[in-house]
Amino acid sequence: MKDSFTILIADRNRHIRELLRREFEADGYRVQLAKDGKQLLTVINSAKPLELLILDLEIPYVNGAEIIERLKDREPPVPVVIHTFFLGDVKSPAVEKASALVEKTGDNIDHLRSVVEEVLQKFYPRQFAHLKDISKESGPKGSGFGLPPEG
Distance (Å, rounded) from C-alpha 109 to C-alpha 150? Predict the structure, then answer.
């Protein structure tokens, strides 16, 4: 179901980029990476579809708040999940336009996953409904533990 969504992960830290890429690809998302503002702008200005941006506010070359400002008028809109340290310091009006804020703590990948899914469901309810219908049509899938299929 999630393979129809493309997520751009923009983070200055290579290890975090790669960790998030592995985790979200394992969940079935298509993932693109950007290590700095230059790569980020190249990706968001390309013709490739992009459904969500996970953004480190301290990305080099372009201010994170500036990225959010640039994306706010894009059609279709691209939701932004800010993934950064020290959420208490995030007070920019542009940042307040982000869809969600998740603090980097080293142990919150499950929380980030759930926030990403919530944001995608909010921004793309038709796509989620359509994908759920397709998965129902493909037949029930049991859990492998003798439990009935979810649904």
Answer: 24
